[in-house]
Design a protein that fits this description.
There is one protein chain. The chain is globular. It has a domain of 124 residues: Roll (Pnp Oxidase, Chain A), CATH 2.30.110. It is an alpha+beta fold and 190 residues long. It has four helices and twelve strands, in the order H-H-E-E-E-E-E-H-E-H-E-E-E-E-E-E. It has a seven-stranded antiparallel sheet. InterPro entries: Flavin_Rdtase-like_dom, NADH-dep_flavin_reductase, Split_barrel_FMN-bd.
């Protein structure tokens, strides 16, 4: 019998206790490459400067109260800013914004230098031409594995209203699947 480690959180303790086989990282990544995901840019202000990154991990958590979340690797260059941010803007990209997604996914450059964004009155950057955005307050940062799950409470949004058929002129969302960008719309409806 081994002594129980007390320096682990509940999830880490549960994972450490498991003696069953698990997927290797490359196998896990392969599964999620086959799962299409919407593309968003999470943007915020940190020490007076805009910070942002591409995220395909944004999820809706609850409508009442309005909660959403995203995950971010603890090694991300954006993590120090996210770890201190009270609020963020989650920008859901349009299908013609694959270049924006690629820019915000690239390390080592000023992701905001090319323009194409404005600041809300509260300071969070909003990407011009995004399908929609949500301004949200960070309510929790939960360490999970080598990442953080960042939970948010939606405060404000800009999103089209009405049925999709009435919004024909609006851009469709950008989707990422198997390392390639895709668009969805009326042409892909079943």
């Amino acid at each position: 019998m081994t002594a129980e480690r007390t320096d682990l959180g509940p999830l880490e303790r549960l994972l450490a206790e498991q003696d069953e086989p698990q997927l290797a990282p490359h196998e896990f990544k392969q599964v999620f490459r086959r799962h299409p995901a919407g593309v968003a840019v999470v943007a915020l202000r940190h020490r007076g400067r805009p910070v942002g990154f591409t995220a395909t991990s944004v999820i809706s958590v609850s409508a009442a109260p309005p909660l959403l979340a995203f995950s971010l690797a603890s090694t991300s260059s954006s993590w120090p800013a996210v770890s201190a941010a009270p609020t963020v803007a989650v920008n859901f990209l349009a299908d013609d914004q694959d270049d924006v997604s690629a820019r915000f996914a690239t390390s080592g450059l000023d992701r905001f230098a090319a323009g194409g964004w404005t600041s809300l009155a509260t300071g969070e950057p909003v990407i011009d031409g995004a399908v929609s955005w949500v301004r949200a307050r960070v309510v929790q940062r939960t360490p999970v594995g080598d990442s953080y799950l960042v939970s948010l409470r939606a405060l404000q949004a800009s999103a089209p209203d009405g049925p999709a058929a009435a919004r024909v002129a609006e851009p469709s969302p950008l989707v990422y699947h198997d390392r390639t960008y895709h668009r969805i719309g009326a042409h892909s409806a079943l």
